[in-house]
Amino acid sequence: MSKTKRICSLLLITVLAFALVLSGCTPIGTGTDGGGTTQTDGGETGQTGEAPVKLTWYLVGNRQEPDTPKVLEEANSYLKDKLNVTLDLYVFGWGDDYDQKVNTALAAGEPIDIVFTANWAANYNVNAASGYFKELNAYLDKYPAIKNILGEDFLNGSAINGKNYAVPTNKEKVHNWGWLVRKDLVEKYNMDISNIKSIEAIEPLLKIIKDNEPEITPLCIATMDAPFQLLDWDRISDDDVPGALYPDNRDYTIINHFLAPESIEHYKLMRDWANKGYIHKDAATMQNQVELMKSGRYFAASQSLKPGKDAEMTAQTGIEWLQIDVTRPVMSNRETTGALLAIPAGSKNPEKAFQFIEMLYTDKYLKNLLNYGIENVHYKKISDNVIELIDPDNSGYNPGHGWKFGDQFKDYLMSNEDPQKWDKFLKFNEEGLVLNSLGFMFDKTNVETEISACKNVVQTYYKQLFTGAVEVEPTVEQFEKELKAAGVDELIAEMQRQYDDWRKSK
Amino acid sequence: MNATAEAKKTGFLKRLVSRRVGNKVSPAGNILINLVFIICSIVCIAPIILITIISFTDEKELLANGYSFFPEKFSVKAYDYVITAGDTIWRAYGVSILVTLLGTFLSLMVICFYAYPLSRSSFKYKNFFSFIAYFTMIFGGGLVPWYMVYTQLIPLKNTIWIMIVPYLMNAWYMIIMRTFFKTTVHESIIESAKIDGAGEFRTFFVIVLPLCKAGLATIGLFCTLGYWNDWWLPLVFITEHRLYNIQYLMYQTLNSIQYLASGSASFSESAKVLADLPSESARMAIAVISIGPIIFAYPFFQKYFVKGLTIGAVKG
Fold first, then answer.
1. Are A239 and B144 an interchain contact pair (Cβ–Cβ within 8 Å)?
2. Who among A26, A94, A291 is closest to B256 (CB)?
């Protein structure tokens, strides 16, 4: 008995001691945290009545950069004179992490001032429709700089029913699709890539690789990153939901693009290529196309392009690529709601927040500070507009925020980038065809069941069809049957109805 | 004289019993049973070994050949990355250890304090408090109200406590513990303590708790695992990256990669972003490191664990 007692008390004491020792450690963490909050409280109430306003800003990214406090200090001292605000920037991970945090905080009405949102992050459409974002039209009129920089078309494209709940980043406003091919192999076999203007046209190149390079697979596919994207359907909803328009404004009829004649032709082409051995056997189960491209075992890959994409991918993968533009550039909803900043309804200082957002479009120093860090600490200038990172492998601040806010054309260029990059971007933007559906947002509420049922069916079949892993005709037949059972007709009809209503009201 | 006879007798009995037990399982059956469990063990252990090996595999080889138990080229670059990636990971490690130790201790305390009175038949409001506990098992408030309670009513957001407090009380563990108290500590023991002049607290700490070590260890292990493996609370409540715990850090990395790779984020820079995230082997290295201390909790708890589990399950 006394032995058990002794053991037990010993155990308790150990745990307690540990707890004490470790809680002794934490006050550094929790203590400063508490300090942080009292400071902000003090900031808001103010001692002299002129205390700066604190703006809380949520962004999506890889991680909170270690030197964020240093950069914010610099930004705050700069902003103090301009707007009398201080910044509190938080970066959360992609996907669930960001969505969960932001959506919960928005629903709880937390006083956040600026959040990053998009059609793929913190669900812009739903949150705007739920009234979680402030309407910005009045501010846009009062402070016209953003409107002037973005242009009416693009800004209207991100509006919902004529109301702007967020402002898009000024960057490439159009997209096109095409191929990336290995430069070394193109040179080795003297291939002519100037005439490739369609998906099929790349086949002779694939054949050369297949015949001469046993170690290299001609075509790299990973699930949705497949040549199917080169058909560039103007999708109404998510990637895996049937319903799209032709990407050339030919009509106003929404069709099931997974079973359109062009798509079925494409599946057959993929089947043919797979039979000829141009596609790797595990394409249907691969996830990360970039990682596959890095391995050096693939010749070509389908990619969403923009000027300088080949240089960008070369830098990332360590393999030299050439880009072949195939589809015509178009301006679609994908771009207009691809990267936005919104002001949540819970914000206590929406006007200051908006003024700050405006500065991201107009103030070159601030934009670059937040994007690249402090000059001579994180980067050094080579010429007026070109910089180099001081320690590229282990930089304290290199978040890659450039495209997430403000005017990207004000960003400095890296020394390894095309000095003409921004000019080419502007030209690219001008070439783009403005799609009829620009600004149309599909409201899923009436057809949620159909959507999730159709998604399930699409998820079952698309990988095999996109990668040519199965015989096309029987699979498509089965695919069609199951989609019908899942209610695809009701879904498309609902899309058409909403689209027609929207066009009439425009 | 008498004692040796007794000993002989029991020895004989033991031999008899063991022979009988031995006879029951034929050699073939024995081999079969062993085989089945060996396979089960391999199925459990192999992935962990594979993860460890991947974390030591050269990145280039991973990209070219995929995962393998016998890589051609070893590399410690992944661990190099983890160690030089700043203090983020070690800090998260510290947070995890602190939360687990403190959380388990406090949680055990709260659960016992709730369960013990319910195990006593003399407690007047037993039904009422049992009902409250059961109620929480069936009904929840939903995410947003729950979030608002911890951010506005009790402002714990961005403190170490937010990773401890929500899991302090667990109705299910409480019921196991109550059953344990009820079956292990007979009412007459408590009565005799009372007669000897012990107050309620003394009875509880000196008599009841030491008798229920198996139960404490079982629930303790559950709590330890629960706290160590938790990434949900930091996901919802922690915005200060200083307070991230190791599981959340890992969740964040893996989830980001999965999300970007799935193509759900169809924005033009997703490929670039993806390339900046930790490599395959670095991710595995983080996973290996996060297994670390918790693996030592098992042997410590194990001897009580089986006993506690059966008592809780059979008589609950």
1. no
2. A94
Q: What DSSP string runs through A135-181?
A: --HHHHHHSTHHHHHH-HHHHHHT-BTTB-SEEE-BS---BEEEEEE
Contact between residue B282 and residue B82 where contact means Cβ atoms under 8 Å apart? yes
Q: Which residues of B touch A8 (CB under 8 A)?
A: 209-210, 213
* Residue pair B241/B144 in contact by the 8 Å Cβ criterion: no
- DSSP letter string, A446-485: GGHHHHHHHHHHHHHHHHHHHTT-S-HHHHHHHHHHHHHH
What CATH class is the domain A174-331+435-506? alpha beta
What are the pLDDT tens digits along chain A (506 aa)? 455 555 555 555 554 444 444 443 433 333 333 333 333 333 333 344 578 899 999 999 888 888 889 999 999 999 998 899 999 999 998 888 898 899 999 999 899 999 999 888 888 888 988 899 999 999 999 999 999 998 888 888 888 878 899 999 998 888 889 999 999 999 999 988 888 888 989 999 999 999 998 889 999 988 778 899 899 999 888 788 899 999 888 889 999 999 999 999 999 999 999 999 999 888 887 777 877 888 888 999 998 888 888 887 887 778 899 999 999 999 888 888 888 999 999 999 999 999 999 999 999 999 999 999 999 889 999 888 898 888 777 778 888 888 899 999 999 988 877 888 888 888 888 888 888 888 888 888 888 899 999 989 998 898 889 999 899 999 999 999 999 999 999 999 999 999 999 888 87
Which ipTM was obtained for this model? 0.72
Domain boundaries B85-315, corresponding CATH code: 1.10.3720.10
Task: Mark yes or no for CB contact B152/A66 under 8 Å.
Answer: no
Rounded to the nearest angstrom, the minimum Cα separation between B316 and chain A is 25
For residue B214, what are the CA distances in angstroms to A2, B217, B307?
17, 5, 7
* Contact across the interface for B147 and A104, Cβ inside 8 Å: yes
The residue of A104, A312, A395, A458 whose CB has the most chain B CBs within 10 angstroms, and thus the best one to mutate to test that interface, is: A104
Q: Any idea where the domains of chain A sit in the sequence?
A: 46-168+333-433, 174-331+435-506
For an interface test with B, give the residue of A32, A33, A63 to mutate (most B CBs within 10 A).
A63
Q: Collect all residues of chain B within an 8 Å Cβ-Cβ radius of residue A120.
A: 264-267
Q: What are the sequence ranges of the domains in chain B? A: 15-82, 85-315
Least Cα separation, residue A224 to chain B (angstroms): 6
Are the C-beta atoms of A486 and A262 separated by less than 8 Å? no
Confidence (pTM): 0.76
Is the domain spanning A46-168+333-433 CATH 3.40.190.10? The answer is yes
